[in-house]
User: Which sequence fits this backbone?
């Protein structure tokens, strides 16, 4: 298939996934803000949402006009959901997803295209809404539902060819990045307090993290025990049966890259295999010994590098 | 603006002046009789609901059109009218034979003008045509497969009476609109299935298959399994939907200029598995933007080196480079003579009488009668830069006069045609609106026409400008397989009009 087509399909899927994850972060942060004493302050709570998406500096640049300015729920919600100047806002992610889809509508089934086109048409109803005041939950639910629908329509209608593989590849590379960032920020933030008490607030905070990746029920089912941070980490890093875990993402990614590479020995395939091996054969104890933060940080970097290699191998073909 | 001095032929009724309300008129043309009966039984609000439903569906699917220079106009819908234009089998056979004849002659003209130029030597077309900016000297002496230049041609037809059709213009560069012919039909079948049971309407859905067959047929010699692609300027082009639609329907890649590159006298596309050779390019990029090495050097839409490969026979372009010289309005005047010269036949379809303002007599006449005439730029298209005399204000007439005097050769003038009207759903109900008709003629090994056309309708009362860039809408065009009696059972023995074919 055309390199440009593959490129667009891959990014279409990445942007949809990015929007979904952003909605999850917003949703969970908002829920936390309803728990009394969950954070020291409104600012301390909402800045974590910016940290997860790596947006703290940009937010300060755009939103802090006076010295006394603080992180506010209203500001962060607008910035992450609707701000057209924030490249990773839900608005921009969905818009980019739709633009990528529009550029290659030929390469997908008409159901897939219509699904994304309708998503964008429906989005307009939220644009002028003050989400910090009302409707944030509904908005986040809508984004998640549209993302589920997108994956469903791809899965249910697309030919199992390279086009389908690039869509799936985009989904899982983006998801792995998002899960790793979320865990890194939350673990870093919550761990010191865990040593103090392990009381009710911690329960809410960790369950919120789990809920943000739809893992709360899975946790209960697997561990049937109190929520322990190291188990949360295990669930989101090493459990291959947990669909948003890093391991599960790389089960998919390695398989897809094998299919796409065929007989070719590609660097992206090697790199994915290397990361996959760490997740498949790694142990939580070892990861903690050398530091979870270091592990996740390395992972995000390697995953980025993988994206670059995918681009080199499939999207920018040398012509001479 | 309403023009009361002209009377118009209406496609549905013989005489509109008899009655204010179309649906009460007694003298409905026979082919519309069954439709009229049905229409009488449908309340206005129900039709309007259908129109809204169509709009919603078109928006969902993204069947949209961009108007240049209009910032908030990104992705607008072309108005779709739910009342069809109906043509009898007999009418269609004249139109299709005439359009095929015309395209055959135009292709022969293009071959001639880029080779021995016999028609100039015979004194039928003046040598000044070689100075036309649409004449591409780069094409001189270049042989193209099957000597076909205009693989896809849109012939714009208008009607002024029961028996009088005119060719308004030929579109031989990158004519668009066929996707609306196909999508309007799909929409009508969805909205009004009962009408399709009642009428025996010739199908048009196979157009993309015929197109693909033709494109494959014009691959260069020695190519056995030709790879066909559609070349689009990209997602922001006004006709992008159509490019995507045709590529999808034909099952071929939709490429942009940067997806292609030239190597060793061949064109390749960049794929995830490496370069893949391309044999036939159905290009929807204008000549000027095709190859920055030869034409517009700033073009980001084209492929550097494409023309050199093309001239050496390494790839087929459809349409060929340089077809613009044949659909230019200064050349249009000579088409009837071309038909006689190349085919030895009398033209089946007439030209509109045309004044060439490069001629002193024609110029004088035009300037004296500007208020009655339509004046067009010789190389204009899309309804831009034209004057409709009867609809223009005094100031507009005066302004246009100055433009003509400044450069008379840039214009032609024609009498304001009493374009036929067709009943159309508007806010107040059903009302007559002016229409034209663009059938698409496909040339490859054969010259083919599917029985249907883009019918454009001027949605504004009294307006004679049907172009979508000027707010025109579209209608489904029905070619009846026979003249139908109401409530007729579908009969298996009725002769099917699938396509008109002539060997070129």
Assistant:
């Amino acid at each position: 298939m055309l390199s440009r087509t593959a490129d667009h399909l891959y990014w279409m899927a990445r942007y949809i996934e990015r929007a979904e994850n952003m909605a999850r972060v917003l949703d969970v942060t908002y829920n936390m803000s309803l728990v009394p004493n969950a954070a020291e302050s409104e600012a301390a709570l909402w800045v974590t949402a910016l940290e997860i998406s790596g947006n703290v500096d940009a937010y300060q640049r755009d939103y802090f006009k006076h010295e006394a300015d603080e992180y506010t729920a209203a500001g962060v919600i607008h910035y992450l959901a609707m701000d057209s100047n924030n490249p990773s806002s839900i608005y921009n992610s969905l818009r980019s997803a739709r633009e990528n889809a529009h550029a290659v509508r030929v390469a997908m089934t008409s159901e897939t295209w219509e699904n994304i086109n309708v998503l964008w048409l429906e989005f307009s109803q939220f644009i002028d809404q003050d989400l910090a005041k009302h409707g944030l939950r509904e908005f986040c639910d809508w984004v998640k539902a549209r993302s589920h629908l997108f994956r469903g329509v791809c899965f249910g209608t697309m030919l199992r060819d390279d086009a389908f593989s690039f869509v799936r590849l985009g989904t899982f590379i983006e998801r792995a990045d998002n899960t790793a960032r979320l865990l890194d920020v939350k673990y870093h933030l919550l761990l010191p307090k865990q040593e103090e008490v392990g009381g009710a607030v911690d329960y809410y905070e960790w369950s919120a993290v789990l809920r943000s990746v739809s893992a709360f029920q899975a946790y209960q089912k697997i561990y049937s025990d109190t929520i322990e941070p190291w188990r949360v980490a295990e669930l989101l890093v090493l459990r291959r049966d947990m669909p948003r875990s890093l391991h599960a993402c790389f089960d998919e990614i390695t398989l897809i890259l094998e299919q796409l590479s065929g007989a070719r020995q590609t660097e992206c395939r090697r790199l994915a295999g290397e990361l996959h091996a760490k997740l498949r054969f790694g142990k939580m104890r070892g990861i903690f010994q050398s530091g979870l933060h270091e592990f996740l940080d390395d992972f995000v970097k390697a995953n980025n590098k993988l994206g670059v290699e995918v681009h080199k191998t499939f999207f920018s073909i040398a012509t001479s | 603006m309403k023009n009361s001095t002209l009377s118009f032929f209406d496609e549905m009724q013989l005489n509109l002046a008899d009655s204010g309300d179309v649906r009460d008129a007694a003298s409905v043309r026979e082919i519309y009789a069954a439709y009229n009966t049905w229409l009488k039984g449908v309340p206005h609000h129900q039709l309007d609901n259908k129109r809204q439903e169509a709009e919603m569906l078109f928006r969902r699917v993204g069947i949209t059109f961009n108007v240049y220079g209009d910032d908030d106009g990104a992705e607008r819908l072309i108005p779709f009218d739910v009342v069809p234009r109906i043509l009898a089998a007999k009418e269609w056979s004249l139109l299709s034979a005439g359009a095929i004849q015309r395209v055959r002659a135009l292709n022969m003209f293009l071959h001639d003008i880029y080779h021995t130029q016999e028609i100039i030597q015979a004194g039928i077309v003046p040598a000044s045509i070689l100075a036309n900016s649409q004449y591409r000297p780069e094409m001189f002496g270049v042989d193209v497969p099957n000597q076909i230049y205009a693989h896809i041609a849109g012939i714009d037809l208008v009607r002024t009476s029961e028996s009088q059709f005119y060719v308004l213009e030929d579109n031989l560069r990158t004519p668009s609109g066929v996707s609306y012919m196909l999508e309007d039909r799909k929409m009508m079948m969805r909205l009004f299935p009962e009408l399709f049971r009642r009428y025996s309407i010739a199908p048009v859905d196979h157009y993309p298959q015929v197109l693909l067959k033709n494109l494959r047929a014009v691959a260069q010699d020695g190519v056995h399994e030709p790879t066909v692609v559609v070349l689009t300027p990209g997602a922001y082009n006004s006709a992008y939907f159509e490019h995507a639609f045709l590529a999808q329907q034909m099952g071929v890649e939709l490429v942009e200029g940067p997806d292609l590159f030239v190597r060793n006298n061949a064109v390749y596309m960049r794929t995830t598995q490496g370069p893949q050779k391309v044999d036939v390019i159905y290009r929807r990029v204008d000549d000027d933007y095709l190859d920055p090495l030869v034409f517009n050097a700033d073009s980001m839409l084209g492929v550097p080196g494409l023309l050199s490969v093309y001239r050496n026979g390494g790839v087929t372009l459809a349409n060929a480079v340089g077809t613009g010289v044949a659909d230019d309005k200064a050349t249009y005047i000579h088409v009837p003579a071309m038909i006689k010269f190349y085919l030895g036949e009398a033209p089946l379809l007439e030209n509109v009488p045309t004044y060439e303002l490069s001629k002193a007599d024609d110029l004088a006449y035009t300037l004296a009668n500007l208020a009655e005439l339509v004046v067009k730029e010789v190389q204009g298209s899309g309804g831009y830069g034209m004057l409709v005399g009867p609809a223009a204000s005094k100031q507009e007439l005066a302004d246009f006069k100055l433009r003509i005097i400044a450069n008379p050769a840039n214009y032609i003038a024609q009498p304001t045609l009493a374009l036929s009207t067709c009943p159309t759903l508007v806010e107040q109900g059903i009302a007559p609106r002016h229409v034209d008709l663009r059938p698409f003629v496909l040339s490859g090994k054969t010259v083919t026409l599917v029985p249907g056309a883009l019918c454009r309708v001027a949605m504004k009362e009294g307006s004679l400008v049907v172009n979508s860039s000027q707010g025109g809408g579209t209608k489904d065009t029905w070619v009846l397989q026979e003249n139908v009696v109401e409530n007729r059972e579908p009969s298996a023995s009725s002769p099917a009009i699938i396509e008109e074919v002539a060997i070129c």
Q: What stands out?
A: The interface with chain B takes residues 1-6, 99, 102-107, 110, 113-114, 117-118, 121, 162, 166, 260, 262, 314-315, 317, 319-320 of chain A (CB under 8 Å). Residues 160-320 of chain A form one domain. Residues 162-196 of chain A form the longest helix (35 residues).
